[in-house]
Amino acid sequence: MAAGPDVVTEALADIHRRLGALDEGEPAAYIPELARARREGFGLALVSMDGHRYQAGDAAEPFTLQSVSKPFVYALALAELGLDEVGRWVGAEPSGEAFNAISLEQGTGRPSNAMINAGAIATTALVPGATPAERFERILAGLSAFAGRRLDVDAAVHASEAATGDRNRALAYLMRGAGSLACDPLAATDLYFRQCAVRATAADLAVMAATLGNGGVNPVTGERVVGERVAVQVLSVMATCGMYDASGEWLLRVGLPAKSGVSGGLIAVSPARFGAACWSPPLDRSGNPVRGTAALRELSERFGLHLMLSPAPAAPTVVAWPSAGTARRRGAFAVVAVQGALDFTAAERVLFELERGTAGPVLLDLGRVTRLDTVARVMITATLVRLAAGGRRVAVAGEVLPAPPDAPWERLGPDGDGPDRAGAEGAGPDRAWAEGAGPDRAGADGADADSAGPDTAR
Ligand code: GLN
């Protein structure tokens, strides 16, 4: 056992400790019930794509989602109706204005985006259901699936907003008058007030954020909540519109899709890496939480999460490549061995190697490929077809790329059972890659047999 908390928990605790002293801003008071919030309440949480959970401070204290509900209900509407239909009712342009602005497009009356009140009300109005109760249940079930547990409504906050929410009703009536609201204004706003009053903790919010970052699959429960395309669409709008009129500055400094709410909640998503959340009620003049903004900015800097940073270099894609002099051969074939998850970038490396790195018969060994996305499959298949059409003899090993009956390539079994490797004792299919195949291994066919048993396979 190691002493003390792990590195991530310690980082959160450190940020929490230091920013606890930042006592600026005021909790929202225009919804009377929110003014009762504990101004010193402060929680932080982080969830990885593997569902690993970290937190600091009051991460288990419930508060109402308010505007943090907006991206998730937008996701549900997109999942039901698709971007074209949703886009008829709500735009995707930053408004550059406050969250409660009357920000409707000239001519159409369409609100600028789904992250401000007008756009969120228009979005909520799109959620299908035969009755108001059924529609709200759909929203609550959706939000709960994002969180990975059944959420509930804070009835006092709902009543408080319903009693004072005339500006939002006015927005709804304006939109209805302009033809840009899909249902009755009072029905739409009541549904919207309920969705804003759904209660969750910072720990829940981090799971919800992580679900968006994980392509719509909740990394804790494993449930697919929305499709990958929808998750990407929601993150895009969060990146440009999630922090109201501070969205540009936020993208510049923090560089993460995010969404704040007047109860002090704030989520930020580092796609394919983390979902993060903060809760602290005092707000700045844009209506964004003061501590949350500072905390997520620090997290992003500390962990290098800015969206525009190039991704961490992945493990090399091509691990045995003739052009580099690592002329591993298998029978008549020069071997191009590939590992890991293949996307566009990785597939480009592979095809470059196949096209320019080899002459004569070539074996593409995909035995260590963990994932072949559609783009990579198309690129590699087209390359093999091209080479075969040009008269090259091509072969493929590995299960990820099955050969259709008319495929112009030969299939070979897993590496290690080829005739030229007989005598490489004790070796499983993985051994050639277990230590990498550097230049020092050139020509030493079978010399890598010492390196690996099945346990080195990952
Ligand atoms: N329910 C709140 C409102 O409509 C949500 C606003 C917010 O969180 N920014 O005023």
UniProtKB/TrEMBL annotation:
Belongs to the glutaminase family. The keyword Heme does not apply. Homotetramer. It holds the Pfam family Glutaminase. Keywords: Acetylation, Hydrolase. The lineage of its organism: Bacteria, Bacillati, Actinomycetota, Actinomycetes, Kitasatosporales. Residues 408-423 have a biased composition (Basic and acidic residues). GO terms for molecular function: glutaminase activity. Its EC number is 3.5.1.2. It catalyses: L-glutamine + H2O = L-glutamate + NH4(+). Residues 427-458 have a biased composition (Low complexity). Residues 323-398 form the STAS domain. Residues 402-458 are annotated as: Disordered. InterPro entries: Beta-lactam/transpept-like, Glutaminase, STAS_dom, STAS_dom_sf. Substrate binds at S67, N117, E161, N168, Y192, Y244, V262. GO terms for biological process: glutamate biosynthetic process; L-glutamine catabolic process. It is an enzyme of class 3 (hydrolase). PROSITE patterns: STAS. NCBIfam families: Gln_ase. This is Glutaminase.
